[in-house]
Each structure stands twice: as structure tokens, then as C-alpha cells.
Amino acid sequence: MHRLVLTAEDNAALFPMLAELAGAYQTIEDPQLIRQAPVLARMLPTHLLEFLETFRLTEPSALCMISGLRMEEDRLGPTPTQWRDSQYGSPAFEQETFFLLCASVLGDVFGWATQQDGRIMHDVLPIKGHEHYEIGSNSLQHLSWHTEDAFHPCRGDYVSLMCLKNPDLVETTVSCAPDLDWPALDVDTLFQAEFTQMPDNSHLPQNATESTGDPTLDRLRARSFQLIQSWNEHPEKRPVLFGDRQDPYMALDPYHMSTDGWPRRHLDAFQGLCAEIEDKMVGISLRPGDIVFIDNFRAVHGRKSFQARYDGTDRWLKRLNITRNLRGSRAWRPAAENRVIY
């Protein structure tokens, strides 16, 4: 793992700047703050910028962690019961700002119109009634390992998590491509476009509000939901691996992949890859103040089950999706500066 631990001196230097930024904007979703984030990130300490740039450019690991960010749990208040409106009056605005600036060193943050109503920074927390859903707000069911948004051509390069609370030390599970025994797998077959991948449950319309309040955006979002339905009904064939055959990238989400009709060789190759991924799976218990950037091309991730209490003390993370090619999703976004994919 590529890791940096912030010192007391780092925190002392960071928080006056973060407090000033938090006082200048209303929420982390402020479009101007998000637009300015790559410029504001230059205010971060040089050694932190160099650390993130090394991870981005040289790919020393599939995981990058920053630890030691100051987190005052008594200021956080109770874990929300759901994600709607949690961005307003956030008690963790300073930490959210730091998270945003670090993410903006790696690429451009973006959101999905079909997830958390198009917000850029998501809340990851248990929601009552979702205990057994295959979705990030579940608890009693394991969240199956996956590439984030594996079904979509505009999926991010990185998915990142910042821990606000994790009193039960619930493990995020990860398996990294560099750890896999590629010579033992049928890599050539996995590079062939014979595998079908359906959209995951977090993009379904029942997890969104009925209206954004903007007729144009509602129409675009409705188009997205229709497209997702069509991908469920008529999934396209695609490869599971891509990039360099000696050090491949991955895109798969077995829970949402139907193997019906796959050639025998492709099914065997896929099952071999899944078995190898599971054999190399490890758990990471994020602690308050930890930020992890998961290379979405080089690692899959999930989460172990836990017993939610719904009493304000449950696990609470923030999540950002990051792309290194914002232009690649231009056909999906209503304007060049818009960060939400429809």
C-alpha cells in the first residue's frame, strides 16, 4: 500500500486553510468550490502533492492511504439515518474540503444523476430497510466485491473513501491486480469481448428522489434510467480485462453478471479469475481520519457485513469518484463544466 501519515505539524498547517475555505462556501457541493478545487489543491503541502502524484503517475500500488487527518468525533454529531440533505451544515466540512482537494490532485471528481440525486460527495452509511440489499447502504449482508460502476463506459479511475466513524472496525475488502497470479489464469480469453455486465442496484430509480426540481435535468435523468433498463434487458458483450496483458486492468462485478450463454472457455476463465481474486482478498478497517484511494482499474473492493444500531453511532464514510478523463463522458453530461453524468 502507498501510504502517508499526516503529522501534528501537517494538521496545524492545514486546518487554518481548510477553515477559511469552509467559511467561504455553503456546502461541499458548491459548484464553484468543486470547480476551484484543482487550483486550491496547490495550497496543500508539497510532500502531500508529491505523494499523490507518485500514486497517480507510477502506479506503485492499487491502494493509496492518507492517515492522521484530525477528526473530532464530538463535533460530528450522530450518524445520519440517510444521505439526503446531509451536505447542509456539515460538521465535517473542513475534512470534506481536504478530501476534495486531495482527490482533485488525482483527477476530476464527478457524480451520477442516478446516484444520491447527482451529488458529487456521497455518504456511505447504513439505512434502515436496506439491510439485505446489494447496495452500499446495506449492513447485514456482505457488500459483494466489485469494480465501481463496472457496467458503465464512464466509470471512474479511482473510488475513494474518507472515514468519519467506524466504531466496530467494519472491514472494507480489497483484492489488487498486482497480487494476482496472472500466469496461472487464461488472460487471453479474459481480454475477449464475450462477457456481459449489468448495471448495479445503486443506479436504480427506487434509490432516487422523484424529482430534482429542474424539468430539463429530470428529463435527462429519466433518459439515464431508461438506458440502464435497456442495459439490464440487453447487456453488451465486453472484456473483463484490458490494458497491458502482462499487468492488466480489470472491470467486473460478478453479482451483476449473468453467465447465461457464455462460451465454456470464457466461463472457466472468468471463474478462475474470481477464485484468484477471492484468494487474494484482504480486509482494511478504516479509522476516523483515514482516506483511501482505490485504483478502480487495478483493484476490486467490497465490505464485510455488520450489525447496524441506527442510534447515531454507526459507521459513516464519505465517498468520491474520480476520473482522469472528464472529456470521455462529455456525451453524458449536459455541459462541459457539469460534473454529473446523466
How are the SSEs ordered, and which strands pair?
Blueprint lengths: L1 E4 L2 H17 L6 H10 L5 H13 L4 E5 L5 H4 L16 H14 L1 E5 L9 E3 L18 E4 L11 E8 L5 E6 L10 H4 L4 E2 L18 H19 L3 E2 L2 E4 L2 E4 L13 H16 L2 E4 L5 E5 L3 E5 L12 E8 L16 E2 L1
InterPro entries: Alpha-KG_dependent_hydroxylase (IPR053447), Arginine_beta-hydroxylase (IPR023966), Clavaminate_syn-like (IPR014503), TauD-like_sf (IPR042098), TauD/TfdA-like (IPR003819)
Organism: Sphaerisporangium aureirubrum
GO molecular function, one term: 2-oxoglutarate, L-arginine oxygenase (succinate-forming) activity
Tell me about this structure.
- The protein has 342 residues and is an alpha+beta fold.
- It contains eight helices and 16 strands.
- Helix 1 packs across helix 5 and helix 2 packs across helix 5.
